[in-house]
Amino acid sequence: MTMIDALPSIRSLTRRLLPTKAATPSDVHDLIRERAAAVPPMRPRVEIPVCDVSPEEQALVALHERGQHLARQENWETLCREMIEAEHGRAKTPGLTPVAQVLAEGARADVLEAAKSAVSKGEPRRAFAAMASLEINLDDMPECFGFASVVAMAHVELAQMWRGRTPLRELSPQIREAHDRHMRAASQLADRFEPFAADAPLLAMLRCAVISADVAPSERLADDFEDLIDLDPTCPEHMCAFGRQLLPQNLGSWEALELQARRVATNTSDIWGSGGYTWVWIGALEQDIEAVRRVDAETFTSGLHDILEQCRDQHMANRLAAFTGVTMAAGQNRDASHSRIAHCFGWIAQNHLREIHPGLWAKAPAPWYSANNEPEAEDAAARGKARALSTLASYFAPQLGQHGRITFGENGVEIV
């Protein structure tokens, strides 16, 4: 085709793209406004250090690998000794995770990985056979609560694999039997030991993990979690786990959730102020965002202040910034309680946040993020960093317009 041959088609395309009449200045301005509206506004630039691998993540990896190594070497005596010492000393990672818990997770990791394949193929017998490599050692150390906890929690996690997210009543008979069999095995091991006599929060945590296997789980829920929190009140995750179980769709009710949150706050006030109330509700809200309609927002907010007064480290600042900024993200059609809690992100970011820990932002439940607005990232760390920077930029944008800069440093936040 020559250039002359192409002219008719070019003219035809031009007629379709250009107006049929001369454009007026008003038409031009309307077109400019229309195209400008289609381009998303620039967000302010956020300059804040990013800690790609936080001290908490370093500790978790090291402890997990330690437990896994000792299990592979079948050095159970050393594993038990280290777990018991950690329990009696209430040893924690920088993010307040119990050291013994992480050692136990590493020790059972290989067995669970082997059993996962059997679960995925619907082979209960093969899953139990994988557990035999652990259980065979129980007779050699019947008094070691550390090793018993490793085996029992492996059974609990296998039961959870069989169940997935399906309600128990909807499981097929074969799957329900596999689930129940693992839970019974875990419960029998838990019954061998008394948490207070052993001075072991890990055993109290195990008792809480097998509550659902009881014939009347709701009746023992409060007592078992009260024991756990009494034994280890400095661990926030125990209180969060209590909040999850207190949801009506689990083993509790709205009334019980509010009552127990206030009881936990009273019992832990010497450590957390009113933060115990907040931790219990954080656990509930991270699982069911609609629970916000029931929370006392003022008490919750007071608890946030008390938590950050007690724990001034960047792990806690990131944990609560991600919760308020991502999980509780403010937006349209939010009630007063929801907005009150979501807007706490501002003072947490300004007064406490000095660096980003991407892992915490990546793990934060994000009910308001969809496939369309979730930051694209190849891995969890990149996704967490994108979430954090996007949330900070969105929050500070109204103060800065389109071209501002926010700098986070040791002396606070500078807005330019």
TrEMBL record:
Q: What is this protein called?
A: Uncharacterized protein
Report which superkingdom the organism of origin falls in: Bacteria
